[in-house]
Amino acid sequence: MNFFKKLFKIYQDSSIDKKAKEQEVNLSLDDSFVHHFINKGGKFLYCTSIKEVSKNLKKILEENNWNEVTCTDLDLLKITEKIDISVQDHSLESIPFFTSCEHLIANKGDILFSSNQLGSNKLATLSKHFIVYATTSQLVKNIGEGLTGIKTHFSGNIPTNISSVKNYTFETEDDNFLSYGNNNTKDLYLLLFEDL
């Protein structure tokens, strides 16, 4: 009789464990984004002040022995002035591209860009090294919310060239035939500023 009790108890315990593992975990937008972003190989620095953004940018440049950046964003140029770095206004493959973005896509860990950041350049033609400045208010649940946000924010003058970086390590193989020949993989640092 004890044998059947033990066997039944073991079966109950394993079914409880199985149900616990199957439960969906609901993370906040920022936790979800960071989880997916880091799992894809992205490098993430959380900042609570603009001074900290400048300090972390300087550390990134020193760590990689970069003496200059490409930056076309007037607001971000103010940050580069604080760290005394040479700034190019045209993209070269060997120089990191310092830019903002449109949105951070929480459910995938992707970063959404448009012509506001990239101009008429395609992501694949820009430097393979990106340093992205973003704020926590730019977090959205999915790509649909990101596109809706762009449409709402720029109503009447919607930017073009909307694309996203989906991979942050070059060893990753993308077998999606829709992205064949359009490699948007970037070695990417994210400076995430808490603005909420």
CATH class identity: Alpha Beta
**Sheet with most strands: strand arrangement:** 1-10-7-4
Beta-strand residue fraction? 15-25%
Number of helices: 6
Order of helices and strands: HHEHEHEEEEHEEHEE
Would you give an account of this structure?
- It is a single chain.
- The chain has helices spanning 2-22, 29-39, 50-63, 74-83, 115-118, 143-153, and strands at residues 43-47, 68-70, 86-88, 97-99, 103-105, 110-113, 129-135, 139-140, 163-165, 187-193.
- It is of the alpha/beta class.
- Strand 2 (68-70), helix 4 and strand 3 form a beta-alpha-beta unit.
- It is 36% helix and 20% strand.
- Mean pLDDT is 84; it is low at 177-182.
- 28% of the residues are buried.
- The protein has six helices and ten strands; from the N terminus they run H-H-E-H-E-H-E-E-E-E-H-E-E-H-E-E.
- The chain has a single domain, classed as Rossmann fold.
- The strands form three sheets. It has a four-stranded parallel sheet, sandwiched between helices.
- It is globular and about 75 Å long.
Structural descriptors:
single chain; 196 residues; alpha/beta; Rossmann fold; four-stranded parallel beta sheet; four-stranded mixed beta sheet; 6 helices; 10 strands; globular
Question: Would you summarize the structure shown here?
Answer:
36% of the residues lie in helices and 20% in strands.
List the helices and strands and how they pair.
Elements: H1 2-22, H2 29-39, E1 43-47, H3 50-63, E2 68-70, H4 74-83, E3 86-88, E4 97-99, E5 103-105, E6 110-113, H5 115-118, E7 129-135, E8 139-140, H6 143-153, E9 163-165, E10 187-193
Parallel strand pairs: 1-10, 2-3, 4-7, 5-8, 7-10
Antiparallel strand pairs: 5-6, 6-9
Helix pairs in contact: 3-4
